[in-house]
Structures are given as C-alpha cells and as structure tokens.
Specification:
Blueprint (H helix, E strand, L loop, with lengths): L14 H8 L13 H17 L6 E4 L6 H11 L4 E5 L6 H9 L6 E5 L6 H13 L1 E6 L6 E6 L4 E6 L7 H5 L3 E4 L5 H15 L2 E2 L1 H9 L5 H18 L3 E2 L1 H10 L9 H13 L7 H8 L3 H14 L3 E4 L2 E4 L1 H7 L17
Helix pairs in contact: 4-5, 7-8, 7-9, 8-10, 9-10, 11-12, 11-13, 12-13
The structure holds adenosine-5'-triphosphate.
Adenosine-5'-triphosphate (ATP) binds next to helix 3 and helix 9.
C-alpha cells in the first residue's frame, strides 16, 4: 500500500476497498444522489432508448476519482436491463484484446471501459469503427499481403470513463452521443449518501454527525463512505455503536482529518508555506523537501485540493498561502506577507 493510498482522504481506491464499496453502490438513478443535471439528462437518454427499443447512445463519463463513474456505468446497464462487461484502458494494449472483448459481447450489452484515455492507439482506432458501425476490422497477415477482414459485432453501448477528458483524442470524444462531466458533491448530497450508507452498514448516525462527516469529505462520495467506515469502527470500539456529533468529531480527529477535510499532508504543506516561508512564494521542490515528500506527491496529491479550497495559489514565482490558509491554521500573517491583508489580496 503506497503512502498516499493509506490516507483517509485519498480519492482513489485499491481492490479491497472497491470490494467493500460494492455493497454501498446505489443501483438505480433514483438512488443516485447529487449530480442532478447529469442524472436528469442521462435518465432522459436511457428512457428514450428504451422507448425506441434501441441500445442507448455511447456515454462518456469524466471527472475526478471517487465521484461515481463506475456506479453510473452499473446503473446504466441496470436501467437498460442489460448485462455489464467491465474492462479498462490499461488492460487493452493490443487491438486484438479489444477485438476479443467486442466480439464476445451479446446484443444490447453495456461495455464499461474505465480509464479509456490509457488505451493503446491501435485499439483506440479499432474502437472508432466499433462505436460507429458496430464492426471491427481484423487484420490478417503481415506487410504488403495483410488484409483487413470486417467482422460485424453486436450493437452495444460503450460507457467510457476518464479522469482526463482533455487527453482523449477528438475523434474518440466525438463518437460519444452523451458526455457527462461529474462535479464534486455538495454537503447536502453527501449527507444523503451517508444516511443511506449508514442504514446499509447498520450504523445509527445522527444528522449532526452526518453533516460533520460530509463537511470533511472533500466533495467525494468515496471519501464519505470511507470516513463513515472509520467512524463506525470507532463507535463500535469506544461506544455502543451509535454515532453522535461528538463521537464523529473524536473519530475524525483521531484519523487526522480536520474540519475542512485536510489531512496531515495537506496541513503540513500549508504550515510549511505559512510558518517556514512567511506565506510564500516558495518553489515546489523547496516546499517538498521541507515537508519530507516527493515533489509529485505535493503537486498531485496535496495541492489540487488546497488550491480548490482557496488555501493555496500557484504563481509563476512559487506557491503562496491565501488569507484563508492563515485563518484555517489559526495563524496571523506577518505584516507585508502574502495573505496579511496589506498585499495583493487586500
Ligand atoms: N451519487 C452517488 N450516490 C451514492 N453513492 C455514490 C455516488 N457516487 C459514488 N458513490 C459511492 O462512492 C464510491 C465510489 O464510487 P465509484 O467507484 O463509482 O467512483 P469512480 O468515479 O468510478 O472512481 P474511480 O475513478 O476511482 O474508478 C462507491 O462506493 C459508490 O457507491
């Protein structure tokens, strides 16, 4: 398990966690919380396909990890009463891998390709034809004598998922009939997810405790459910299993997730910028050394959330703490420092 993977606020999951998650997945669009626009649009697309007796258009789901792409793929298959096949871009390195998957599909099935942006180029080109004409060209032979034999494949719905829609080549993006960009969830949606998951797990959760866990979940259902499991563990060991507000706070404090969802790494980065570098600007590599982490970890794991929360700015001269960062740490910015009120923020 990597260092980041052991963070309670890591938006990614390993296989063991995915298995634990499967019990908590909503199975219908009605149960899927949040993302109201995506839900409504997708509901319409699927209902229209059902009414026509046709397979649904190909769907592209994009957004950060843990926001529900896999869950939506499962819901699409369930709503279309179709079996779901699951594969991923990294598993398809040769066009032949994809040809095998496609020719093994049944009529109307849903194929979920996670991390579709990581598929190999030849496989991607095969997918264009498959998506458009439900056909694959299998190349037989080599060199000048090679011939492409067209093979019809069943009509299917491709659900592609990517964390980086911008990395998808235009021709692939254009072949999806419906594209949904998933956004971070608001606290109301996360609270609803929590109340449902708590019922599923047999945890008695007060509404105040749910609000507290939601607030610390970084807008990500995966983190919400993980924090709930840890709070549940704490409640089972330290109390009678009932989760009150005070108990939720104690549990989350123990796991070092603060009241805005920052963990030890995030706070370490902010504290370094403020306390050691006077609020910045400080260069990425200096910052990484001062918190004892790799630059990649600081840049890819901690910073995106800190920037999104308005605690940190990336400037051409380096990282700079905002007034909100000083306030969050309970520190006062020295006069003249970024974030002190008499500088660029004032
Ligand atoms: N809208 C939602 N309502 C209820 N639960 C949700 C919702 N979205 C996600 N979840 C829960 O969050 C967890 C993670 O969701 P999911 O695996 O679908 O995310 P993902 O976007 O596919 O992540 P990754 O990109 O890492 O594959 C699951 O346990 C799922 O049940």
């Amino acid at each position: 398990m990597s260092e980041e993977r052991s963070r309670p606020v890591d938006p990614q999951a390993d296989d063991a966690e995915r298995a634990a998650e499967s019990a908590l997945r909503p199975s219908t669009l009605g149960e899927f919380q949040g993302q109201p626009r995506v839900s409504e649009q997708l509901g319409l697309v699927l209902a229209a396909a059902r009414n026509r007796g046709a397979v649904a258009d190909h769907v592209l789901l994009s957004g950060p990890p843990g926001l529900g792409k896999t869950t939506l793929a499962m819901i699409i298959a369930a709503e279309m009463s179709a079996p779901l096949r699951i594969s991923s871009g990294p598993a398809i390195q040769h066009a032949g891998d994809l040809a095998a998957i496609l020719s093994g599909l049944g009529e109307g099935e849903v194929l979920f390709l996670d991390e579709i942006h990581r598929m190999s180029r030849p496989a991607e080109e095969m997918l264009y034809l498959a998506m458009e004409d439900f056909r694959v060209d299998v190349v037989v032979g080599k060199g000048p004598g090679a011939t492409a034999i067209p093979i019809d494949i069943p009509h299917f719905t491709l659900v592609g998922a990517t964390t980086r829609a911008g990395l998808l080549p235009g021709p692939l993006r254009d072949r999806f009939g419906f594209t949904a960009q998933l956004d971070f969830y608001d606290d109301t949606a996360l609270r609803r997810i929590l109340m449902r998951s708590a019922t599923q797990l047999g945890v008695r959760l007060s509404t105040e405790a749910a609000a507290e866990i939601a607030r610390r979940s970084r807008g990500t259902p995966r983190i919400t459910n993980r924090l709930l499991r840890r709070v549940r563990d704490y409640a089972q060991v330290k109390a009678d299993g009932t989760v009150s507000l005070a108990l939720a706070r104690d549990a989350l404090d123990l796991f070092e997730v603060d009241d805005r969802g920052l963990d030890r790494l995030d706070r370490g980065v902010l504290e370094a910028v403020c306390a050691r570098f006077g609020g910045g600007p400080v260069g990425l590599s200096t910052l990484a050394i001062s918190v004892g982490e790799e630059t990649d970890t600081v840049e890819e794991v901690a910073e995106p959330f800190l920037v999104r929360q308005g605690f940190l700015m990336r400037t051409p001269r380096g990282r700079v703490a905002t007034p909100a960062a000083w306030r969050h740490l309970g520190l006062t910015a020295p006069v003249g420092a970024p974030g002190s009120g008499d500088d660029l923020f004032s």
